[in-house]
């Protein structure tokens, strides 16, 4: 499986007009697949490049689907969250978040 899976509709992709950027919020939801946290940076860079923006307003990560009875660990999620925090510090992302976490893992991450 590739580190980054790019899904685009070429005829529907266009760069954001710089004059309109102030009026737009640009968000992305990244679905984690695999165990390479650097794929977060690659995906953010790819989105910024495709849209012609310097930063994304928000990025949400979603863990991979898991089988019933199996729980993700904080140790699995921390490298991805750390990469997101690094991108916020470097002003590539304004706000970060998660989705599809169970209560325990969300509390641990917090």
Compute the number of strand runs: 3
- The poorly predicted ranges are none
Number of contiguous helices: 3
Overall pLDDT confidence: 85
- Secondary-structure element order, N to C: EHEHEH
What share of the residues does DSSP label as strand, in percent? 15-25%
Rg, Cα atoms, Å: 15 Å
Entry keywords:
110 residues, alpha/beta, three-stranded parallel β-sheet, 3 strands, 34% helix, 16% strand
Nutshell version of this structure?
34% of the residues lie in helices and 16% in strands. The chain is α/β, with parallel strands linked by helices and 110 residues long.
Overview of this structure, please?
The chain has helices at 38-51, 74-89, 103-109; strands at residues 27-31, 56-62, 93-98. It has 110 residues and is α/β, with parallel strands linked by helices. The mean pLDDT is 85. Strands 1-2-3 form a 3-stranded parallel beta sheet, covered by helices on one side. The radius of gyration is 15 Å and the shape is globular. Helix 1 links the parallel strand 1 and strand 2. Heterodimer of a catalytic heavy chain and a regulatory light chain. Pathway: Sulfur metabolism; glutathione biosynthesis; glutathione from L-cysteine and L-glutamate: step 1/2. It comes from Chelydra serpentina (Snapping turtle).
What's the helix and strand layout?
Elements: E1 27-31, H1 38-51, E2 56-62, H2 74-89, E3 93-98, H3 103-109
Parallel strand pairs: 1-2, 2-3
Keywords: Glutathione biosynthesis, Ligase
Pathway: Sulfur metabolism; glutathione biosynthesis; glutathione from L-cysteine and L-glutamate: step 1/2
InterPro entries: Gclm (IPR032963), NAD(P)_OxRdtase_dom_sf (IPR036812)
